[in-house]
């Protein structure tokens, strides 16, 4: 029987080529690289699978240190000697060792490992990752890019520079007047593009409704994402009840259990799918089924992961019918995807058909840019 022989973890700095600010604060800029944790799983007969997640504690609680140490000291020992094709047994062991509490436990660490296992499984079976999830519905996937919080003029210039992108996630800061100016400037710069407002929890219910009232004439605005604090489901319900556009939930929904409660409370019209917060690809897919059964629309997103995390989401999202282009920001913000083989043309990515993820990690870059501090 084939067995997992090695699990390697590489906390790596991946440079950014632009500034990125969201409603909860600073994400990165050209002077501060992002922390990405790469995982390489190798079998005793030489097959390898790669996974990745980005640490962004200003968005969720996991840090580079916690992701790295969790994988090295708590997940890797559970993988060694296991059959890589028996994912049910592996996932059961991980979830029994790292129990979810109210919502989810160590989802970013689990997601990095899960992507590597799925990549490994696809390479062993010689099929693309999307086939493991029923097969792609779409050969290509259009991308939406986030516009970092800035002055209206700069946000408008960045929207123009990203033409012919057909959808922008416009980051807003929680002040109705200033955010109205940002939205109007972007709409004027890209009049045919759909706009997806993302507050990242920066609003109160009353102020969120005030902003939506101010911009009701901008027909290109499709939805508003996570206007209020992640745990304020009743605030979400209040906004959703009075909003003229769909309200999407993101930080307030990590698991399909969360989504079931959200559906009961009727506090969202759509859910933002992220592999990282779900704890992996299969767990993310469970939220899809709950959403579809409760008439919640599907939006796809990421956390500015490099090429491995990026293409894993592309595979999964290609099997779904998203209502807007997937917001996967790496091509617009990172200096490198740290992989070879991704094809993007006019902000549309081709879904790979090679085994596993269908791309080749840039292992030299990953190892050359290891973070100086060794996490133990």
Fold blueprint:
Blueprint: E1 4-14, E2 20-22, E3 25-28, E4 34-43, E5 48-55, H1 64-79, H2 87-97, H3 107-125, E6 140-147, H4 152-161, E7 167-171, H5 176-189, E8 194-198, H6 205-214, E9 221-225, H7 233-242, E10 247-249, H8 256-265, E11 270-273, H9 275-278, H10 281-293, E12 297-300, H11 307-318, E13 326-327, H12 330-333, E14 339-340, E15 344-345, E16 348-350, E17 360-361, H13 363-368
Parallel strand pairs: 6-7, 6-13, 7-8, 8-9, 9-10, 10-11, 11-12
Antiparallel strand pairs: 1-4, 2-3, 4-5, 6-16, 14-17, 15-16
Molecular structure report:
The relative contact order is 0.16. This protein has helices at 64-79, 87-97, 107-125, 152-161, 176-189, 205-214, 233-242, 256-265, 275-278, 281-293, 307-318, 330-333, 363-368, and strands at 4-14, 20-22, 25-28, 34-43, 48-55, 140-147, 167-171, 194-198, 221-225, 247-249, 270-273, 297-300, 326-327, 339-340, 344-345, 348-350, 360-361. It is globular, with a radius of gyration of 20 Å. The strands form 4 sheets. Strands 6, 7, 8, 9, 10, 11, 12, 13, 15 and 16 form a 10-stranded mixed beta sheet that branches. A 3-stranded antiparallel beta sheet has the order 1-4-5. With 376 residues, the protein is an alpha/beta fold. The model has no long low-confidence stretch (mean pLDDT 95). It has 2 domains: 4-126, Enolase-like, N-terminal domain (Enolase-like, domain 1); 131-361, Alpha-Beta Barrel (TIM Barrel).
